[in-house]
Amino acid sequence: MSHTPNRQDFDHYMAPNYAPQQVIPVRGEGSRLWDQQGREYIDFAGGIAVNSLGHCHPVLVDALKDQGEKLWHLSNVFTNEPALNLAKALVDRTFADKVFLCSSGGEANEAALKLARRWAVDNHGEHKDKIISFYQSFHGRTFFTVSVGGQPKYSQGFGPVPGGILHADYNDLESVRKLVGDDTCAIMVEPMQGEGGIVPGTQDFLQGLRDLCDEHNALLIFDEVQTGVGRSGELYAYKNYGITPDILTSAKSLGGGFPVGAMLATDAVAKSLVIGTHGSTYGGNALASAVALAAVEFIDTPEVLEGVKKRHDLFREHLETINRKYGVFKEIRGMGLLMGAQMSDAYEGRAKDILPLAIEEGLMALIAGPNVLRMAPSLVIPEADIAEGMARLERAIERLVAAT
């Protein structure tokens, strides 16, 4: 007997750790989606910075279909051609010498943190175990990564957290200097905080972290799960700063919607991840690797990356125009097509109230905390969709202001 799922089925069958919107999208093409009733939406959310080429992009669909008729999964008892091709593509395009493939950003960050600790033990001894991260950072949902992340709400209520983790203030180098020492094994940082409010790191701050790591024989880990694979206007955001980490993590846009993650590292660091130290059942999956390779090769072109920068300017212009009319934003910030609009004092904490109004107007957007409206659309979103989406956003904001 057939059954058409509805929103009530979520409450009935699914664990209650999410609170999804009432609409259920069933089809997507490019930067537009349609729900069960056939209503159309423009997508500024991008699956939380995942759908790097929008929905059902032909390049990704072709890669999926082609590999889907050849080989899906082997396990890591064997290697496979798509995984090797993806690893080579990432090494050729970055500072890295070695790649560990996995299934998500949380897995990639877990691997990075374990590798940093293992490298420190191998090279300096067990006393060198401190990890410095930043308040308001977000690095995943495993117990290690939520503990390193700087938002206690994600780790509270699950018992004692792992030790040796310290937190400093983002974009405040002096707060890091007070914590760093010869027992520091790594500093983990997002070059732009995502869940923490779309806050780009300053050049001096990130360069200072690099210098402190060099001074104290510690590793610099860049979490580029949200900023990577074209999102910032470069393939990876570290290229915007000219600052090279020792370890980099990648996911989200890497697969264009297919679950895949990667940890990239130099030879000197990666050699500590010897046989048996870490693994991922689905990591290096042939199907995921084939799709990710297609995404990387398509995105890492001047046309796409320059297009991201151009679209950033368009988003900013539209947001500034809306703000001149309604005065709802205090600051518009971000890099590339990961942008945040912080609410003004008069609308403090009201970013979340925009989302249901936007849905009613036919627009999907995000928040980054209660006070920042976040947008992470397709890297190739048509300019006409930007204009129409912003018109829908303006109508939602007009309704918010009118109801205040």
UniProtKB/TrEMBL annotation:
PROSITE patterns: AA_TRANSFER_CLASS_3. GO terms for molecular function: transaminase activity. Gene3D superfamilies: Aspartate Aminotransferase, domain 1, Type I PLP-dependent aspartate aminotransferase-like (Major domain). Pyridoxal 5'-phosphate binds at residues 138, 223-226, 281. It is found in: Cytoplasm. The modification N6-(pyridoxal phosphate)lysine is found at residue 252. It is an enzyme of class 2 (transferase). Its cofactor is pyridoxal 5'-phosphate. It catalyses: N(2)-acetyl-L-ornithine + 2-oxoglutarate = N-acetyl-L-glutamate 5-semialdehyde + L-glutamate. Its EC number is 2.6.1.11. The keyword Chloroplast does not apply. Pathway: Amino-acid biosynthesis; L-arginine biosynthesis; N(2)-acetyl-L-ornithine from L-glutamate: step 4/4. Its main location: cytoplasm. Keywords: Amino-acid biosynthesis, Aminotransferase, Arginine biosynthesis, Cytoplasm, Pyridoxal phosphate, Transferase. HAMAP family: ArgD_aminotrans_3. May also have succinyldiaminopimelate aminotransferase activity, thus carrying out the corresponding step in lysine biosynthesis. Belongs to the class-III pyridoxal-phosphate-dependent aminotransferase family. ArgD subfamily. NCBIfam families: arg_catab_astC, argD, PRK01278.1, PRK05093.1, PRK12381.1. This is Acetylornithine aminotransferase. It comes from Vreelandella janggokensis.
